From TrEMBL, chains A, B, C, D:
Name of protein: Gfo/Idh/MocA family oxidoreductase
Keyword set includes Oxidoreductase: yes
Domain GFO/IDH/MocA-like oxidoreductase: 144-287
Alphabetically ordered keywords of this record: Oxidoreductase
Length: 390, 390, 390, 390
């Protein structure tokens, strides 16, 4: 019999639902060294938390996340709350000896992220693990992209162009949900979806951004107040309030390997729903990916004869592809949620193996530093702003 | 508290895994009138069945499917075995008062399918429900295609071109698994994947095939014996044996509404992994779908001004799309397995509502008749062979 | 100084315009052994022919095509008339010692095509050349497809699926132009566009169709009379008349190499404008092409590792691609008309070299036999109808 | 009889060939008020110029461009030389009363461009016209994009992302052709292809860039000397020399309407051959275009119901589309060169009508100012650099 890894999760909104789906199913598809148990869900509203726990498959409901730290049957704390509470929960959980997986962005400020990274480093010395949940790394096509780069298929990286395009707040009557409030969300498109493309670009290339030149904008400066606090939707409230985060952020960057990169995160790309796109050009080949077609990776092998070269659509559903073999036969694609399943699978394996999972809190801190540099550059006439590379 | 609907499943190979995934998750995403319980899994090999039950989340394991019929905690029997056992299990289960969901094709012969359909009709009189599991109907894009046709967006249907293209047996050394043996599988590509495009074409158009002209072929006539019986893969055995089913089947057809259709099912379309494709042209518009891009439906509205008309890629992930709203925000695509979750959701709702679920066993029988007509035409110089339309 | 090859062309409608464009430009892009001269254009209406000659760049206008045969400054006769006049003109021109390039389909009946092919064979003995103008062979992507097959990149051909989809007569008020009249056009979609996909399939695979099973349909049986005779458009007339050709033709076929093929030619594929599509699956690889994206050839190399294989988009604009190097730098695509330029380039080179150009009138005859077999099978309950393979 | 417009062209390399093709064919497809005559081609090398004139269809060859200004049979001077000679030729030609069409970028410096724009303004007062040849404006899909924006289909423009991606100098052994030398070319990817996307973005949106933040890079700093001076290719020479222009330029920008834009011009995007791409997001809809699929414009109409909205592929070959009706039936696409034909057609019509053609030299000057601002910002830590908007 395998040992059990009890999980306590904080938050049950969008991210709570995806993480629950991961914990509920990971054991049916992967052969894990520990058996995950969905022990307890923590939330502030007792009734809503009870209902969510029942719906999502958690055995218990807690109304204070600190209670999770007291439970002996919880070994893992999974943080799915808005960014303003990440640091407090994560630091306390690690101190309590719980392994921590924390949603991205790691924090709302560099200071918080530094505190969390320091806590994670200290915890690692005691065998306690911490991971930041950049789920897109675990999309099979993205993991394959990383493998291709690591194998040298692209040669020297010259260009990265990364975009994360959504359109859910194009309507000026869309309400002022917490994701549009700086005190809760830290930033807007930048931290929410820009953080993903920063991590994806650094992960796939294996390089770091050395500095950025940025521009941000808030197109709709005032919005109707939301009736209830929610990240993505809300009933109707009364009156309006100021949008205190960016609607869109554009920045260019330089990479440690000498390449140039461009980034764009926006919630105003009408018709683009969840277009996390990245294209990478190297001296030997290129890659392109768009999450709206998440089971495809486009690869150009420049070493082939020109007469037969071209971008090829690799359907990333083969047994030889990352994660894919655990699921269905070739051509039977995966969905958004599967990356979360892969995430907790890798996290459990790292815990059992006593190794540091990736992305680490240090990786999360590095992304946080880029986010801060973007804001600084945007406030300083787009001047190139270096990022400390750790 | 909602009443419980206990499920007993027979078979735990490819389809058993997809159905388990559906039963395990449906309640977390949909608000169901009955709470599904994964009561028991039946299989012949005790040890393997035990392991599968544990892995897939079934509470009990049985080594005889008839035991499921005796259990009071089982109200639903889910048949995931090869086609040669469907009739026996389904008829017995319905007689025992169990609701039945049965994998496709409904049976290996028209005679078996007729017996099953008669049993289903009789059972319906007693409030016992039967459904054949043509999962692709529940892919949101396919369900949306049906909706568009039903709303009249296509006008009169002129053309259907349907293909189901795979390539998993292109290698002549691929072994003689049960799906390549007529006594187990009934037919080859025709019944396995051809059945899907027949059902999909009839479902989306709301019409029936009135006759077919067909051609079939077995490209590789002898294959290595498989070490162990499996549908999709096998270890190495010794010696070779004859392939007794079709590798590919092509047929043209006429539709009840006067349109023309073409169908192709093959396991030799190198590079196509699971390309269930359908394109429909009507007097007012057209639709195109390819399962390899399963979250997209392409729609051409011919009533628009020519200068701005064109096939549009509808990303079928909006709240207003079939099933999609239960999952994730727009642009966060679903995968292969979700159609099965939708299937059991609709089945449970039909049971609770006391209505007949679709596709019914009569629908399955109709597909079986088309399959038989295809084989008859192929054996008779491709002569046009009428299909009885019920 | 190069010798001059004087050209006399018959007909100045759609095909007359494309051929004029070819003759006008071929010398500016290719280094030809003969200098083509646009000597004379023949048409029945004196005024219209004069105007067309001036517009299209022909030095003289003739009102009787037979006058072209008398001219010493004409060495090449280019036939761009409807199919009912091909045989008479071609046979006379060859007898007069003129090289002949004739639009497709070669004729309206097998008997006419046989007469023409015999005349071409006889003429070849006298150094007089004949070519049938299947222009799509000279699209660079199609020529590259042929090269890939000839090089063995596809292995044994298992499947061909060819479609030629248009939608210009979906509107039942579209008038009864000559292309919808059997006495002028021979057949409808079948001979007009079906002939193209038959030739393309045979050319690219290097195989022949050995027999067909077919189905045809005329969806709109009566149409408004056209005010003036034209193939593609017309002013308004009075009254209606019967459509005497097929609107759509579907057929399956067997290939000399043992593969299966399907063909569809229709003018009722709403939203598809000129979608000549062909997909070929072989034991080692696959190809796909759609003329609506005419500068792309999709190639799947099945000998690659599964983890990096996929259909690749070869942009057929490289110097190493057929014809492409004569035009613009890579990525600067060609258009519809360029295939005609390539056609006359190859024709001129064959004339100068004293070799038989391809496709020959025998090739045109073979296509004609397939067209006849399709009509025969369609009239005989879709029964498989062998095609004589020469 | 229409009056004749005699044309004298300077230069016969890549652009000379495209312009010749335009002059040779424009009259066969469009009904022009003036009949263009290809009078004389000017080049420095007598023999090569003679040969080019014969090949391309020019009646005479001149070895000094100034001779064109003396010819009474020349009314139009077409400048197809590298940027360093544009100002001298254009100013002189306008002074001589010749209408001038000049390749882009208008000049190598803002000062030259200002001189030219002033000359053009002065000439206009005398009925003499000047046009800068941003050919991509006349691709039907780009012209249609402009029409859609002008009709209000996009609403308020929020985002532009424009890229021009090529890969022809990825190989470090590619020689030091004139396009890689600052004294001849002015700049590298920036002026050569960056100029195109600046013009395209401004043209399609109808807005202007108000300032930029830029980053440029030269990846390969030393290259083999070219044997002979050419822009795109060269034989082998001896030794190496420094690349004095940018290989890639990235910049972000703000638009007069409040939107944000990003631009990237590079010759190091491996596998991208001539990918001029632009995507525009507005409050009511979006557009996307990629020149590698030049006959397609993608349009998203955000005012449709979400359930049926999506990016639609408008095949820009309909009679109702800009320029398309003059050519072939729907679905029969155009190629790269056709935009040049449209360009001279519009130029001739403007001359005959006595109106100023677009893009004017002032438009070319505006692009030049953006190019200068990009270089200035890149040299100043990417600091936002305003552009004077005229």
């Amino acid at each position: 019999m395998r040992p059990v890894a009890g999980v306590g999760m904080v938050g049950y909104a969008f991210m709570g639902r995806t993480h629950s789906q991961a914990w509920r199913n990971v054991d049916a598809f992967f052969d894990l060294p520990l058996r995950p148990a969905m022990v307890a869900l923590a939330g502030r509203n007792p009734e809503a938390t009870e209902q969510a726990a029942a719906k999502l498959g958690w055995a218990h409901a807690e109304t204070d996340w600190k209670r999770l730290l007291d439970r002996d049957d919880v070994q893992i704390v999974d943080i799915c709350t808005p960014g303003d509470s990440h640091a407090e929960i994560a630091v306390a959980a690690l101190a309590a000896g719980k392994h921590v997986i924390c949603e991205k962005p790691l924090a709302n400020t560099v200071a918080e992220a530094e505190e969390m990274a320091a806590a994670a480093r200290a915890a690692a010395g005691r065998g306690v693990r911490a991971m930041v949940a950049f789920n897109y790394r675990r999309v099979p096509a993205v993991a394959l992209a990383r493998r291709f780069v690591a194998e040298g298929k692209l040669g020297q990286i010259r260009h990265v162009r990364a975009q994360y395009l959504q359109d859910w707040i194009v309507d000026p009557d869309f309400p002022l949900v917490w994701r549009l409030q700086k005190d809760k969300a830290g930033s807007g498109a930048l931290g929410d979806i820009g953080a993903h493309i920063i991590d994806t670009a650094q992960y796939v290339t294996g390089e770091r951004l050395t500095g950025v030149s940025a521009m941000t904008e808030t197109f709709v400066k005032e919005r109707p107040l939301a009736a209830a606090s929610s990240g993505l939707s809300a009933g109707s409230g009364t009156g309006t309030g100021p949008v205190t985060v960016d609607d869109a952020a554009l920045f260019t960057a330089r990479l440690t390997g000498g390449g140039l990169a461009s980034f764009e995160a926006t919630r105003f790309a009408t018709g683009r729903k969840n277009a996390l796109r990245i294209e990478i050009n190297g001296s030997l080949g290129s890659l392109a990916f768009d999450f709206e077609s998440m089971n495809e990776l486009w690869f150009h092998d420049h070493t082939l004869d020109d007469a037969e070269a071209g971008f090829r659509r690799v359907l990333v559903t083969e047994p030889g592809h990352p994660y894919a073999g655990a699921w269905w036969p070739p051509g039977h694609g995966l969905g958004y949620e599967h990356a979360f399943t892969h995430e907790v699978k890798d996290f459990i394996e790292a815990i059992a193996a006593g190794t540091d999972p990736a992305p680490s809190f240090d990786d999360g801190l590095q992304v946080q530093r880029v986010l801060a540099a973007v804001e600084q550059s945007a406030a300083d006439d787009s001047r190139f702003t270096p990022v400390e590379v750790s």
